[in-house]
């Protein structure tokens, strides 16, 4: 079975966390960072297993960068 690496962005929301795989636009949630990440991994694996390869390739963003910047406020 082939494996592939994906990027996870985790954000606090309310009492839990939202995890996003930006390469595929798949998201999940959990009560902790670890559970949100594990749930996202499962969601991505189910997506890849059940989705036609052409659809996966259509949705796949291969050039993902995560950076930070400063912006003036006020």
Give an overview of the whole structure.
- By secondary structure, this protein is of the alpha+beta class.
- The chain has a domain at 9-59.
- Helix content is 34%, strand content 22%.
- The chain has two helices and three strands.
- It has helices at residues 33-50, 53-59; strands spanning 9-13, 16-21, 26-30.
- Strands 1-2-3 form a three-stranded antiparallel sheet, covered by helices on one side.
- A hairpin with a 4-residue loop joins strand 2 (16-21) and strand 3.
- The chain is globular and about 50 Å long.
- The relative contact order is 0.17.
- The model has no long low-confidence stretch (mean pLDDT 94).
Task: Describe how the helices and strands are arranged.
Blueprint: E1 9-13, E2 16-21, E3 26-30, H1 33-50, H2 53-59
Antiparallel strand pairs: 1-2, 2-3
How many beta strands in the DSSP annotation? 3
* CA(first)-CA(last) distance: 52 Å
Count of helical segments?
2
| Radius of gyration over C-alpha positions, nearest whole angstrom | 14 Å
**Structural classification:** alpha+beta
The shape, in one word, is globular
* Average residue pLDDT: 94
Residue share in β-strands: 15-25%
Percent in helix: 25-40%
Encode the helix/strand succession as letters: EEEHH
Sum up the structure in keywords.
single chain; 74 residues; alpha+beta; 3-stranded antiparallel β-sheet; 2 helices; 34% helix
In brief, what are we looking at here?
The protein is an alpha+beta fold and 74 residues long. It has helices spanning 33-50, 53-59, and strands spanning 9-13, 16-21, 26-30. The protein has a domain at 9-59.
């Amino acid at each position: 079975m082939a494996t592939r690496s994906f990027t996870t962005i985790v954000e606090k929301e309310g009492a839990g966390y939202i995890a996003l795989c930006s390469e595929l636009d798949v998201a999940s949630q959990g009560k902790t960072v670890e559970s949100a990440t594990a749930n996202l991994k499962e969601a991505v694996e189910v997506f890849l297993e059940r989705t036609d390869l052409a659809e996966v390739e259509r949705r796949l963003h291969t050039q993902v960068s995560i950076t930070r910047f400063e912006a003036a406020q006020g």
